[in-house]
Amino acid sequence: MVDVRRVKLPGVGVLHTFVTDDGGKVGVITHRSGHSDLITFSDAEDGADVSKVSLRLDEDEAHTLAELLGGTRITESLSALETIPGLSIDWFTVDYDDHIAGQKLGSLAGRGVVGLTVVAVVRGESANPAPSDDFTVFPGDTLVVAGTPEKVAKAFAYYRTGEMKPKVAADAPPGD
């Protein structure tokens, strides 16, 4: 029987890890947003020559992989028990071609995203909690944000493209 270690990641989701018979270390981070990260990793005593791999899977891809490996949806059920309705805490890793790269964090409230908070910016091995609007974001930084799932998605779209999707009123006639 494989010994699976389960660790709650506050505001993120759940990390499940285990060690394979040949000494490999495998983990799955199940995010509250529904996607999962499949990771292999090493400890400090494993030496510098061990490579690390991370693969982001959406919900359908994670289910497909679990089915291919003969798994169940237990992880999904456990994660669902720990969700806070209406709150999504997720992170955005900044790439070189993202709009936010090299820019000041700025206020998303001025762009129509009220009620979203950048909780921290992680740079390398250090975190910058509650960064100010004039904090400059660089490629490789990870932005940790909290808000409704819709606002988080809107912020991520802005960080990527620099554009906000226009808000359309339900009673507005087409073309307005």
Taking the sheet with the most strands, its summary is: 5 strands, antiparallel
Which structural class should the secondary elements be placed in?
alpha+beta
Main β-sheet, spatial strand arrangement = 1-2-3-4-5
SSE arrangement, N to C: EEEEEHHEEEEH
Shape: globular
Integer tally of domains: 2
What distance lies between the first and last C-alpha atoms, to the nearest angstrom? 61 Å
The count of DSSP E runs of length 2 or more, i.e. the number of strands, is 9
Low-confidence stretches: 71-79, 166-176
Number of helices: 3
* Quaternary class: single chain
Q: Radius of gyration, Cα only, in angstroms?
A: 19 Å
The share of residues in extended strands comes to 25-35%
Structure write-up:
- The chain is of the alpha+beta class.
- It folds into two domains: 77 residues, no CATH class; 74 residues, Alpha-Beta Plaits (2-Layer Sandwich).
- It is 18% helix and 30% strand.
- A hairpin with a 4-residue loop joins strand 3 and strand 4.
- The longest helix has 13 residues.
- The radius of gyration is 19 Å and the shape is globular.
- It holds the Pfam family KhtT_N.
- This is TrkA C-terminal domain-containing protein.
